[in-house]
Amino acid sequence: MSSEPSSPPFAAERAPSALESADPPSESRAHGVLVARGFMYLLLAVCALALGASAMLWQKLSNIQEQLARQSQEAGGNAIEARALARQAEELARETAARQALTETRLGEVALQRTQVEELVQSLSRSRDENLVVDIESALRLAQQQAQLTGSAEPLLAELRGADKRLERAAQPRLSRVRAAIARDIDRVRAASVTDVPSLLVKLDELARQVDELPLANAVASPGAAAASARKQAAPARPRWWEALLADIWDEARGLVRVSRIDQPDAVLVAPEQAFFLRENLKFKLLNARLGLLARQTDSARADVAAAGAALRKYFDPAARRTQAAAALLQQVQSQMRAIELPRIDETLAVLATAAAGK
Q1: Can you give the pTM of this predicted structure?
Q2: Can you give the pLDDT at residue 341?
Q3: Which of 27, 145, 153, 170 sees the fewest Cβ atoms within 10 Å?
């Protein structure tokens, strides 16, 4: 009985030591949780910074892409424009080279003909008939070249008639075939319809001279002068002073407003300082047509005349007499331009070659 009461106090004394031994593990666990949370927060902060940096980098990349796209578009436009300019320059150079080659070819042919004529003069050992035939052939070839350069059949006709007269004076029976061929070629050349280049040049010069006198479609007329002339024609009697004063006031009031019909909107927008350049541009078109006729470029000359006519109808007053006269003259020039080649005298040249060979 006495030993039982002493055992509980012992047990009570041993219990606190067991609880004390259990506290250190819970503190270490709480410390680990705090460390884990801190690491997690740090990781989240690093992720947030990385996302922000990625967003800024993406924005910069987008701006760079937009700038590169704009630069690429501008470069493409510049390349297209450069190709167009290069194509125009190439076409102009090709056309200039073709004209120069044609001129050099014709000059070479003329020089060759001159050389042949000189050789003909120096060949004194030939017979009279052979010299006559060769001389006529050379002269006809030279006349044909001159007719092609000038665009007129008159030099060729004159040389054919001269050759026929020379053959008639020679009175050689074996040259009768040559005279017959010359007669047929004369009829063929005379019947051909060719462009009268000298008259066309005169008309183009006259049109270029009249350009400065043509009234524009938006030119403001003087209504006061027109009304005064109308009053003089309607009332030859001298009006009273107050009637003249009222008429002048009425004319000035009518001159404040001008109503007219212009079918071409571009003609209204022509400023007074641009009228000079408009007239000079029309003169340049007429000058280009003139040069095209001289260079035997009928299609180019016809295109320039058509462009001049379009500018005349578009920018100048169609009701004015001078404009109507210029348009009529321009229509005549355009109708007289024909791209018909001069007939060749191949038959006469072939018969002359046969006669020169003694056949």
Answers
A1: 0.39
A2: 56
A3: 27
